[in-house]
From TrEMBL, chain A:
Molecular function terms, GO-annotated: hydrolase activity, acting on ester bonds
Organism: Flavobacterium cheniae
Name of the protein in its database record: GDSL-like lipase/acylhydrolase family protein
SUPFAM superfamilies tied to this protein: SGNH hydrolase
UniProt keyword terms in alphabetical order: Hydrolase
Taxonomy, superkingdom: Bacteria
Automatic annotation (TrEMBL), chain B:
Phylogenetic classification of the source organism: Bacteria, Pseudomonadati, Bacteroidota, Flavobacteriia, Flavobacteriales
GO cellular component: cell outer membrane
UniProt-recorded name of the protein: Long-chain fatty acid transport protein
Similarity-based family: Belongs to the OmpP1/FadL family.
MF GO annotations: long-chain fatty acid transporting porin activity
Organism: Flavobacterium cheniae
PANTHER family for this protein: OUTER MEMBRANE PROTEIN NMB0088-RELATED (PTHR35093:SF8)
Superkingdom in the source lineage: Bacteria
Membrane topology: Multi-pass membrane protein
Location(s), subcellular: Cell outer membrane
Length: 533, 421
């Protein structure tokens, strides 16, 4: 009897410890393949830094695509992956301060207490509070994530890009200033101190993006920015901030960057420049946003047609441009009136035509205001921030009779990327990407074709889980789960960075015979909503 | 995309789950040791559960069997596409009490109290499958007064009403989307209903054409556990959603079916000492089409409904058992069964992570004296690992499958006493 109990006890213990075991553990087949992730360094711009909702914040940075990659690399021998410190962003507000003065916005959030004009809940606002990220707290440290928001290709090799003395002058970059190892350090030089065995390089978007997001205008918002593929200017030191980089310059700099990165035998992935004009920043505001109601109904529309649109249409038509301006419709949505730097200047003709009725001074003022005006067409892209400007009074108008933005006063250059400007962006992007692919091929590097992948978002990108994502801007809770872009309309949200990381992982798996797990984007946050702001 | 999968295990405390779905086949020490056969076995008062008709053939006037098990159920989950791992370890204590009393040559009365259904699964809160289940504890106790009537030498019928009492506590996150979370804790809902009662019945017959052969059949009816006005409480609701109508604490109604089960079987006394038994169970799981939870308004009208397709299929279990009476003191038993899961591919949810299993059982009785015996049993349930998924979860109009590889194991030692005179 006693023995029986002992046997039973042994039996019980034996079975109780009989844990379920998988034939193959979850990580059994993970491998780095031909790649070596001992020291992974990421080079790039805001897309590499984890920029979202208009800033880099402490939490947002943790979702940078290189950080998401590094989490998977760590499963197959990847070393420590460091990112610039945002520990001082204790309240996760983002933004930047220089000497206690704000120099960059805090992050954007959706305020659940605010109702949009269309009745939906949640208006996009800058989060309340004061940024605690002080640029002058110099970290002087090289990190594995060398993504610098705002950087263009040639900035990565420009000494002084991290010199604090240049921030106020617009000659250096406050993000790089925070961690540059010295005032004369270059981004690429600091990156190389990490002795990369593997790298990602996603640079080039800003070489066209700042031109596009500024509607082809310089920082004054009015003067046309230059396309150096047209000017032939090969000296980036003379470029304005919103200019399009010459593609020869781009190819040369890109080559330098790659040759430097691989100088120690590193392998890596380069990413193409996405077609920036498919992002929500350009596709959210329609070219014809003015409903008859928004224009104040038929009475107002008739008055506008009689006093402004009719005369303008008459003058432009007389000079061979019958569709440059058309009468406003009282039944369907209308395009907005814009200033087009590329339009034929009809100020003299307008002045002449109106002098008889308005008197010379007023006619001259009209000529100046409307000389390069036209209505938008379907080929134009109205930028996202314009949505809060259209229909509001313009303080620089010479008369309160013609002071409504987009209605009775042309929207400034920066609010619209015109068809002409769009073409310049597209041509430059194509040239850059050709250079990227050719340099990658020459050096046996993998290419993540982000341009093609993000391009699929326009029609809907279906990922592994069956989930379909689109390039739409946030438009309410019903579609929140499909939104990949953050509230700045340019940069992905955390979920979007997970999708990007997956695409890079798939390229690595394919090109370097690796087997790395993916991230499931459904589990990543999209839009940030606050109960009150 | 590779298939997903699911799941895991369950357990007890008057609640446990296996034998497919949330059925827990541990209703007696002697019969469990024989592969949980028993519809045509007359061994002890346990027959009050397996086939009340058999109570009439018990040798003793009064029979009592009391027993309980420790049920240790572990399930592991992994998904190598996303490097996910999770585990649930649960302990349950199914028990049973059976008594019979022979009033005269043709009429025997009995009472059975047992725990045939239950499920206890506890994953880590906010694990990757949290939108399907964080934890569930489902328990049901059946109380079944029975009678057995002999009709002649070779035949008897028996049955009785079943009074079922149950409770359920279920928690899951309301979304995968981390938008609905507070400081990393996903917004979740706890459904809690206690004191759910329902009635059913059992009925069967036993036929003994020879001294050595017994044939039995038993049917236990479907019982629908109707939870009414249970508590639905939402936790970790972010500020911005605090006024959302569908996230307000309220009450709920839901029905959980405990399926009908038909058993046929036979036993054969090969020698005076050696017996063989075979049972076939058919559980009518097809009734479990969906777990539908109606969240109610204060006036009792439906506020919103959560519909979770289950689409179970009817499932069979094949059992074989044997008993060898070595001497007056010791009787040894062993058994095996194959248990078909009612869960169909694509409906494999981590709340009842059941695929097909094979049960290995054994046990013995030590007869202290002519009246009192002590019973020991053990059960080991083997599950092959399975790649499966639940493909019917929807969030904001998008269907988001969840799955991976699941591997379960269940071990249950038990002890009981048999008393009779």
């Amino acid at each position: 009897m006693k023995n029986n109990f002992i046997y039973l006890a042994i039996l019980a213990a034996g079975f109780a410890s009989c844990e379920p075991e998988f034939e193959n553990e979850v990580n059994a087949e993970y491998t780095s393949g031909d790649a070596d992730f001992t020291s992974y360094v990421a080079i790039g711009n805001s897309l590499t830094a984890g920029y979202m909702d208009g800033t880099v914040s402490r939490v947002g940075q943790t979702y940078s695509f290189p950080n998401l990659l590094a989490q998977q690399f760590a499963l197959v021998g990847g070393g420590e992956f460091t990112q610039p410190s945002y520990a001082e962003d204790v309240n996760n507000l983002g933004g930047l301060m220089l000497g206690g003065i704000p120099i960059a916005d805090r992050r954007r959030v959706l305020d659940a207490t605010q109702v949009n004009p269309n009745g939906s809940i949640g208006a996009v606002e800058i989060i309340a509070g004061t940024s605690t990220i002080e640029v002058s707290n110099l970290q002087a440290t090289a990190y594995n994530n060398m993504g610098v928001p705002g950087a263009k290709s040639f900035h990565l090799v420009a000494p002084g890009y991290g010199n604090i003395a240049g921030v106020a002058l617009g000659q250096s970059n406050p993000y790089f200033v925070r961690h540059a190892t010295s005032p004369t350090a270059t981004v690429l030089g600091d990156a190389m101190t990490k002795n990369p065995t593997f790298f990602t390089n996603w640079i080039g978007a800003n070489d066209v993006l700042s031109y596009a997001t500024n509607g082809g205008a310089q920082s004054d918002g009015v003067t046309a920015a230059a396309d150096h593929n047209s000017t032939g200017n090969m000296n980036p030191a003379t470029y304005g901030g919103n200019d399009i980089t010459n593609s020869g310059v781009f190819a040369s700099v890109y080559s330098t960057i790659i040759n430097t990165l691989i100088s120690g035998g590193a392998k890596g992935v380069v990413a193409t420049v996405p077609s920036v004009t498919s992002i929500p920043y350009f596709t959210t505001v329609p070219f014809a946003p003015l409903s008859p109601t928004a224009l104040g109904g038929a009475t107002n529309i008739n008055a506008l047609n009689a006093q402004l649109y009719g005369p303008l249409d008459g003058i432009f038509s007389a000079y061979g441009e019958p569709n440059r301006v058309n009468l406003l419709s009282a039944t369907s949505a209308n395009p907005i009136l814009i200033y087009d730097a590329d339009a034929i200047d009809r100020s003299a003709e307008i002045t002449a035509a109106l002098t008889g009725t308005l008197g010379a001074p007023t006619a001259a003022a009209f000529g100046a205001v409307f000389g390069k005006a036209r209505q938008t067409t379907a080929a134009d892209l109205v930028v996202l921030p314009a949505s809060s400007v259209i229909g509001t009074p313009n303080t620089s108008s010479p008369s309160t009779l013609i002071n409504i933005n987009g209605v009775s006063y042309p929207m400034a250059n920066k609010w619209v990327l015109t068809a002409n400007e769009k073409l310049k962006v597209a041509n430059a992007t194509a040239s850059y990407n050709a250079a990227i692919v050719s340099i990658a091929d020459a050096n046996d590097l993998a290419v993540a074709d982000m341009n093609a992948i993000l391009g699929q978002l326009v029609s809907g990108l279906r990922i592994e889980t069956g989930q379909v994502y689109t390039a739409n801007y946030f438009s309410g809770s019903a579609t929140e789960g499909t939104v990949l872009f953050s509230l700045d309309g340019v940069h992905p949200n955390a979920r979007g960075y997970a999708v990007i990381a997956n695409e890079v992982l798939k390229v690595i798996n394919r090109y370097y015979n690796a087997n790395l797990p993916l991230h499931n984007p459904s589990y990543f946050p999209g839009i940030n909503i606050v109960g009150s702001n | 995309m590779r298939k997903l999968l699911s799941l895991t295990l369950l357990a007890l405390a008057g609640s446990t789950a296996f034998a497919g779905g949330y059925r827990v086949s541990i209703q007696g020490q002697k019969q469990l040791a024989m592969g949980h056969t028993g519809v045509a076995v007359v061994n002890s008062a346990e027959v009050a559960f397996f086939n009340p008709a058999g109570m009439a053939y018990l040798d003793k006037k009064f029979n009592l069997s009391v027993g309980g098990n420790g049920l240790f159920a572990n399930t592991k989950f992994q998904n190598s596409q996303y490097n996910w791992e999770a585990e649930t370890k649960n302990v349950g204590t199914p028990f049973s009490v059976y008594a019979t009393y022979r009033l005269n040559d043709w009429f025997t009365a009995g009472l059975a109290v047992y725990t045939p259904y239950g499920s206890s699964v506890e994953w880590d809160q906010d694990w990757q499958g949290a939108h399907l289940v964080n934890n569930i504890d489902l328990a049901a106790i059946f109380v079944q007064p029975s009678i057995s009537i002999r009709v002649g030498e070779h035949f008897s019928v028996g049955g009785g009403p079943i009074f079922a009492s149950g409770s359920v506590n279920f928690n899951r996150n309301v979304a995968i989307n981390p938008l609905l979370s507070v400081d990393g804790s996903g917004t979740d809902v706890t459904l809690d209903a206690k004191g759910i009662t329902a009635f059913g019945y059992t009925a069967g017959f036993m036929f003994n054409p020879t001294d050595k052969l017994r044939i039995g059949m038993n049917y236990r009816s479907e019982i629908i556990m109707e939870a009414r006005d249970g508590d639905a409480n939402f936790n970790d609701v972010p500020d911005f959603a605090s006024t959302s109508p569908t996230l307000q604490n309220t009450t709920f109604n839901a029905d959980l079916p405990l399926p009908a089960e038909l058993t046929v079987g036979m036993s054969y006394q090969v020698t005076d000492k050696w017996m063989l038994a075979f049972d076939y169970n058919r559980a009518m799981w097809g009734v479990y089409e969906a777990l539908t939870v109606d969240f109610l308004n204060a006036d009792g009208s439906i506020r919103n409904t959560s519909n979770n397709p289950r689409n179970y299929k009817n499932a069979s279990t094949y059992r074989v058992g044997t008993q060898y009476k070595a001497n007056d003191k010791f009787t040894f038993r062993a058994g095996w069964y194959f248990d078909e899961s009612p869960v169909q591919d694509g409906y494999f949810a981590p709340e009842t992570p059941r695929n097909d299993s094979m049960g290995y059982t054994g046990g013995l009785t030590y007869q202290v004296n002519s009246k009192l015996g002590i019973d020991f049993s053990f059960l080991y349930l083997h599950f092959d690992e399975t790649d499966n998924s639940y493909n019917y979860y929807q969030e904001n109009g998008n269907t988001l499958p969840f799955g991976g590889t699941y591997k379960s194991s269940v071990f249950s030692p038990g002890i009981g006493i048999t008393y009779g005179f």
